[in-house]
Amino acid sequence: MIGWSVELFEFDIRYEPRGVIKSQCLVDFSAELTPLPTLSGGWTLYVDGSSNTTSCGAGVVLEVPSDLFLEQTLQFGFWATNNLTEYEALLFGLNLAYDMGAREVTCKSDS
């Protein structure tokens, strides 16, 4: 390094050490470049919605082929009928399955 700095001195080139790279930046970088695993097989989506005079909501359970269950409850800030809550839960569940990498999903609902 000293030899290089002497030779490069006449060209007015200076060596500046690099700053510290935070470990979180490396984790974020590797997470962005790592593809999500595509699980094939029996993706099953269970949805159920409920509505009454005071509130409405829905429940979503996504069964992944690796025997993993993702459960989510939804509470809506608007009044809706039972059928509308079922449809909203179905749309939410399908978006969740798509984000997880599913391309074929069996949906089960009581509507």
Number of domains in the coordinates?
A: 2
Question: Could you name the CATH class of the largest domain?
Answer: Alpha Beta
Biggest sheet: strand arrangement: 3-2-1-4
Q: Main β-sheet: number of strands, strand sense, barrel status? A: 4 strands, mixed
CATH topology of the largest domain: Nucleotidyltransferase, domain 5
String of helices and strands: HHEEEHE
Q: Helix fraction? A: 25-40%
Mean pLDDT: 80
Rg from alpha-carbon coordinates: 26 Å
Shape: elongated
Distance between the termini: 74 Å
Give an account of the 3D structure.
The chain is elongated and about 80 Å long. The longest helix is centred in the C-terminal third of the chain and has 19 residues, at 82-100. It is built from 3 helices and 4 strands, in the order H-H-E-E-E-H-E. It is α+β, with helices and mostly antiparallel strands and 111 residues long. It folds into 2 domains: 2-33, no CATH class; 43-108, Ribonuclease H-like superfamily/Ribonuclease H (Nucleotidyltransferase, domain 5, 2-Layer Sandwich), CATH 3.30.420.10. The protein has helices at residues 2-8, 23-33, 82-100; strands at 43-51, 56-64, 68-76, 105-108. The protein starts with a helix and ends with a strand.
